[in-house]
Structures are given as structure tokens and as C-alpha cells.
Please model this.
Amino acid sequence: MVEITISGAPGSGTSTLVRRICAEMGWRSLNGGDVFRAEAERRDLSVHDFSELCKNDLDVDRSLDFRLKQAMTDSSGPEVLESRLSGWWAHRLDIDCIRVWIDTSDEERARRVQNREGGEFELRLGESSRRQAADKARYRSLYDIDLDDMTPYTLVIDANDLSAEEVYALVETEMGAD
Model:
């Protein structure tokens, strides 16, 4: 059963945090992005093409999110679930777990993605801003979720000026508090 959810916009550092938690705790994780990529591959689509399909067919998003919610409630499921909406799902399903949101600005996410994947900063910034705006609109339409509402989260970390180690230390403290 899920012990902790990790959420944040792409480039916020969620995957880095999940890897560290799993290494330290010996836990298993499920990444919503991995589920997304696997479904794209199953459909023989590129990630970009599958993303476009999701924009036009909201039932695809719903089916992927259903899989994540099933994993969260499975007693033999992973202890860590990483996805943009995992904190919301845990909150709505009344799952007693730590729900973390990693908060970063568009600029910081663009810088991190640029460092990881290359490209020009202004291009990465535009991509980050557009993706965040599109996701906000889609989640509002699909589930009446406001990504700016931090109500579901037990820990919100402003990670703009924090290292991965500092973010982990804050989460580790929260895990020890339970």
C-alpha cells in the first residue's frame, strides 16, 4: 500500500526524490510518466503523438489515472507513487499517507530540463510554461482539480533554491514524524 506520494511539475525533481526514497527505504515505486510511456509504446505511438491523443480523447487520461488509483489501493502495490495527481488521488481516496508537492517556478524547471536534456533556455521555458498551462486546464476539465490548490498535500516544498539532498532531508524529516 502506498506510504508516500510525490507530485510536481515536470522538471521539479520528483523522479530524483523518488529514487532517493526508494534507495534509502528499500521501497518500490510506480511512476505515472512510466505508465504513460508504456501505454504510448503499447499503442505503437511516440510519446508526443500519444500526448496529442490524450489532449483529444480525455478517456485515455482517465484510464491511465484509474490504473494509478488501483495501484495506490493495492495492498501489494508500491510504497511510493509519483505522478502529477497522486497526492490528489490519495486525498480523495482517504489514503493515510504522506503527500508531497515539489514546487518550482517555470524558470527553475526550464533550467533543470535544459541541464538534463540540453537545448536553449528560452525554448525550455516556453515548453514548461505551455505544458503547465495545458495540464492545469486539462485537470480542471477532467477532474475539477486546481493544480494551484495545495490542500491535499501534507508537505509542500519550495525547491527553487534547494539541492536534491536538501529536498530529501525535508521529506525524510516528514517520514520520521509519522
Notes: The mean pLDDT is 92.
